[in-house]
Amino acid sequence: MENSAILSIDNVGVMFGGLKALDGVTIDIKKGEVLCIIGPNGAGKTTLFNCITGFLKPSSGSILYDGSVELTGRRPYEIASQGIYRSFQNLALFANISAVENVLIGGSKRAEFSYGITDAIFRTKKFLTMESALRQEAIGMLEFVGIAGKKDNKAGELSYGERKLLELARGLITKPKLLLLDEPAAGLNPTEKTELVLAIKKIREQKINVVLIEHDMRFVSDIANWIVVLDYGKKLAEGLPDDIKKNKAVIEAYLGTR
Amino acid sequence: MNLPSSIRSILKAYILPLVWIFAVSLPIMGMVRSIFAAVFVLAGLLVFNLFIRKKPRVNKPGFSWAHTRLSSAGRSAWIFALAAAIILPLFLNGYSLDVFTSVLFYSMLALGLNLLVGDLGLLNLGYIAFYGIGAYTYAILSTKFGIGFWSSMMLGGIVASAFSLIIAIPTLRLKGDYLAITTLGFGEIIRIVLNNWDSLTNGPNGIMNIPRPSLPWIQLSTGIRFFYLVLCFVIIQIYILSRIKRSMFGRYAVAIRENERASEMVAINTYKVKTLYFMLSAFFGGVAGVLFASKQMFVSPDSFTFIESVYVLAMVILGGMGNIAGVLLGAFTLVVLPELLREFVIYRMLIFALLLITMMLFKPNGLLGKKA
Amino acid sequence: MRIFIQQIVNGITTGSVYALIALGYTMVYGIIELINFAHGEIYMIGAYGGLLVLALLGAHHSSGIGIVFLAMGGGMLLSMAYGFTVEKFAYKPIRDSSRLSLLITALGASIFLQNFVMIGQGASDKNYISLNLLNTAFNIYGVSVTSNQIIIFAVAVIIMLSLDLFVNKTMTGWAMKATSQDPVTAQLVGINVDTIISITFIIGSGLAGIAGVLVGFYYGMINFYIGYLVGIKAFTAAVLGGIGDIRGAMVGGLLLGLLESLGAAYLSSDYKDAFAFIILILLLLIKPSGLFGKKQA
């Protein structure tokens, strides 16, 4: 049964000063599911993402990836090269270069596109083939998320929604096994939201595991198979979307009636 | 006493700074120069307020992304510059030729340093140390062990990049500020060692009688032949750098410069890339040093002081960070201009410092740098 | 053993000077995260300020202690004026720029001030008057301590204690601490961040100016170039104590002075000036947050 988990977060705790940002959180993310983490502001959702991706070292607990790889204590790039990609709540793009170059950088680390520094200096055949294959694929990714028309625009000049999609495309080209999206729908207009839902559904079909942080319950129940609710750094509840909607504790946490 | 607000604002914007600068300068500079300083500041303020302030300021120094293809204007500019570099020396006297050879040496250094400052946004304040290491490597190898110029060339570069690891390993994981100060300290350490390790470096007297390079069919003894030798090196360096820039290694640097967090997120080992760039930058410095020693036929610690590092840095900044053509322009300007302004030699460094400050204020990307 | 104690005495003397200068670095770094390369030059200008006062008052070999303090006052005021000016004219206009721009501006300011003084005061060494009252040597079991060394140490201790009181006990001190921790919030609670930054520069510069005068008396001569090496050493001291930490800078300065003085005596005096940087590199390798610093990312 344990083997079916792509990520096992076990009893993870984080302390900021004297404050417990995360307090013994345990979540199993099963292969093939779209898991959504919800909770009021300051509940510790982004903190949890930071722990998984190595930007923060948890003060206790362990995070096991694919049944065997311990993630805590590793540097972000090591975790990323395991096949984990995350997006940031307030975006982390390379703003002064074009959209397609953003995606190119995302794909540069893949083994099938790698070449040595001498290949680059002497413009070997290997270099030329790799570069054009990579560019092809990058454009393909932009088409997949639907912004191929803006490929030569600077990332910083795109609209907010386009930038979110670009960040997603940059992630997809890394061929991730696990995709962590921090509030992907925030700030999108209704059309863009629908496109995002479609994109995520297509991503799931490619056997990529998706974990989302989200507020928009309608959006969440559209795509999530499983929901985890965090509150004050603790896991408040987990279950199917419909069950969570009816859960008394969750409703209270959101309405703040305790 | 109630002054009209316009008069008050003029007082505050011009008269107050004027009086203040005069008062502050007086104890150090004396009456005449202080008046001059105050007038200078007043002029600066006027220019700033009347002509520059209205435009929105571009604050963040950017970089220019290497275009896969040169524009035709760009290409003709390169060809023109190359033709000038080949033909012009034939008509120059010995002194001018020396100045232009010096432009080439500084171009090599500035291009090497640009890998760090321009491409990655990391400040190296001891870059000249790698030049010195290269120069001394050749000086020692050739005078003590009889090793030839061409084999020393690679060795000089390799020794310099090996030394660069001493700085890279502890500091590249930390914030950029630490790199600035440790490289500064490193430059000092190297100079102090060169000055004091008498048995190896002959201390402050330096090493003499360093052999000139030779090719089987041609003697590189004259100034003009040496000029062309260095020119070849500059061209090779430009070629290598532009190729690297347009490969994924160049993209890694751009990514780190733009957003380090996002770079880590797409599995780029930022520490490794920075270390690689640091070593490469030192390598070019070392190679330039070997050439320099063979031209001078003499090395001493005096050639490798802190202010030289700053000079090279200023070339990178002036021309356009991250932009190869800009860096060459910077090297050219900062070598030739002081030669033209010989009468003002006492004010040279002062002007130079003002240039650094005003560049950061108005054009942080350099003369040829793109707007970020 | 006697040599050892003698070196400790000498080390505490130079260490006190490093500490005074390191305070300026650490305070400025704490508040705007800038390595103020010009700080070494501010110290040098202080030394010239003291010299001017001595000349104005016509000091002679048997002048009393009062003249020492007047010179210190003069150096302090001149350094304060320059520190304030550099901040207002060079740093403030680009405070929101990238860190790289700020560092380069600081570098430019440093070179500017060096050459400014060189032009105004000449490139050659200038002599501080040798006061009899500072040259009294006390011989304690073969270890020589001069009255000059005692004054340096005493002045440094008094200044550091007052600074500590100022930062921890006054409203302005609290505002400084608040600004260094979170400038945005500080602004929100009504602290005038610009003023606080100016005050920080002025205080830090004043301390460096006093250090400049003390060193002038101690070594007997100054030139426009003295700020460069001492400046980077003092910065090393600040890192040693954990950059941004005021008490750390004091301890770091003393420690660096001691290490340097003992290293010169027992390892090699030729490499005296290199010790500070070797220590800095080793420290960054082992404990980048400083000897007493908390662990940071």
Structural features, described:
The complex is a heterotrimer of chains A (about 260), B (about 375) and C (about 300). By secondary structure, chain A is an alpha/beta fold. Chain A folds into two domains: about 1-85 and about 175-260, P-loop containing nucleotide triphosphate hydrolases (Rossmann fold, 3-Layer(aba) Sandwich); about 95-175, no CATH class. Chain A is about 40% helix and about 25% strand. Chain A has ten helices and ten strands. In chain A, α5 crosses α6 (about 160-170). With about 375 residues, chain B is an all-alpha fold. Chain B has two domains: about 1-55, no CATH class; about 70-360, Orthogonal Bundle (ABC transporter involved in vitamin B12 uptake, BtuC). Helix content of chain B is about 75%, strand content about 0%. Chain B has 14 helices and two strands, in the order αααααααββααααααα. In chain B, α4 packs antiparallel against α5, α4 (about 130-145) runs parallel beside α6 and α5 (about 150-170) packs antiparallel against α11 (about 270-295). Chain C has a single domain (about 1-285), classed as ABC transporter involved in vitamin B12 uptake, BtuC (Orthogonal Bundle), CATH 1.10.3470. In chain C, about 75% of the residues lie in helices and about 5% in strands. In chain C, a hairpin with a 2-residue loop joins β2 (about 135-140) and β3 (about 145). In chain C, α1 (about 1-30) packs parallel to α5 (about 145-170). The chains are: A alpha/beta (about 260), B mainly alpha (about 375), C mainly alpha (about 300).
Total number of distinct structural domains of chain A: 2
Please give the most extensive interface between any two protein chains, plus how many residues each contributes.
Answer: B-C, 59 and 58 residues
Would you identify the CATH architecture of the largest domain in chain A?
3-Layer(aba) Sandwich
Oligomer: heterotrimer
Main sheet: strand order of chain A: 6-7-8-3-9-10
- Number of domain units of chain B: 2
Q: How many strand units of chain B? A: 2
Which geometry of chain A do the CA atoms define?
globular
**Overall SS class of chain A:** alpha/beta
DSSP summary: helix tally of chain B: 14
Helix content, binned percent of chain A: 25-40%
Offer a concise description of the structure.
Chain B has 14 helices and two strands. Chain B has 372 residues and is mainly alpha-helical.
